[in-house]
Amino acid sequence: MTLLNETHDPALRSWLASANTAGGDFPIQNLPFAVFRRAGTPEAFRGGVAIGDQVLDLAAVAAAGVFAGDAQAAARAASEAKLNALMALGPAAWSALRLALSRALREGAAGQAALRPCLVPQDRVEYDVPARIGDYTDFYTSIHHATNIGRLFRPDNPLLPNYKWVPIGYHGRASSIGISGQGFHRPVGQTLPAGAAQPVVGPCQRLDIELELGIFIGQGNAQGEAVTITQAEAHVFGICLLNDWSARDVQAWEYQPLGPFLSKSFATTLSPWIVTLEALAPYRAPLQRPADDPQPLPYLDSEANRREGALDIQLQVDLLTPRLREAGGEAATICRTSYRHAYWTVAQMVAHHTVNGCNLQPGDLFGSGTLSGPTPQEAGALIEMTQGGKQPLALPGGEQRSFLLDGDTVTLRGWCEKPGAARIGFGECRGTVLPARG
Ligand SMILES: O=C(O)/C=C/C(=O)CC(=O)CC(=O)O
Ligand SMILES: [Ca+2]
Ligand SMILES: [Mg+2]
Questions:
Q1: What angle do CA 66, 70, 71 make, to 5 degrees?
Q2: ipTM computed for the complex
Q3: Which atom of ligand 1 is nearest to the CA of 168?
């Protein structure tokens, strides 16, 4: 687990004024990574770090030779169009780069003259998926989501007996992962309409969101060698927001016995910024496992994981319908929750994924699973918020929604905030539903 160090000091301020704005996502204590280029240009994508309203171009920083040693090696690795090489370097190199950036961006730092020309305004850039994602695994770590959705799909047997023993997951689809701002076509699929004797094929009628976090793997492990829970977090590069768009009518028909297949493989949207575990260190929280639940098996248990394996990342989902957009653009907030309610932690996901000797690789992605919290206002999917579509959401202006309609835009947001620590923001993860292809 990461100890607090000088980079977390809430009193630190940057010479870049926009980084010191109260309530901003990207103060000097955050320093998340993305790949970017100036929008509308043929420039190569390269790694950058968010600071205030700017992106610090790491390829330019590396070329300028501002840093030395591990920090310079990390900046050079981050100059590529994907961050896999940086991810593969491991925590000592990530940490060296973070410390060098923190020192060079501070008020009064000598590095100011060299770094200023490496800044690009965020409102003039476009982002790409930050890694070559070899494999994407979607977990199911919210017991509240598992219980709520289980009740809808399996009324007699909502929470299956393995849930409290196994961090359940399935292998997702990497090729259709896109970056915030994307539009995607409503999927077509096979469904069994209520009361029908035979399935039909057509546009999905129950298109949903899933509020998730994306966890990027840094250093991999050799095939055959399990990662212990104690080592697990050294293999994690950082965390972003993830929307696992889901076709519920397709899912209900196809998912037994092998799990979701085409109902979730058509599009998955990520936020561009990856917040490092080191930046999140002030927001660790105790794992909340009810005292009468079974204790995890030893490979999924450690004292540190129980004490501070959870993360208090606050999450929000906003829905902008075409009608709200026309009326002036104010989106409706349809969910507020926190990642701290998850039943299984990041470390447990890594330990479980590798216990059989499965090798993780730099740039692999985990989805946390839908992060519903304990109350109805904390549900992370429309199917839960609307009781399977039976109780539509009432939106401003008298509009209603059970599932997504064409033209709807969904934005996920995440941030950490508390007295005595700097705010750490995740930016946003936005996607828009386009009509099914005719
Ligand atoms: O309980 C089920 O049968 C289905 C669950 C999901 O759709 C959730 C899934 O993709 C994993 C998650 O996001 O928690
Ligand atoms: Ca999911
Ligand atoms: Mg998906």
A1: 35
A2: 0.92
A3: 11
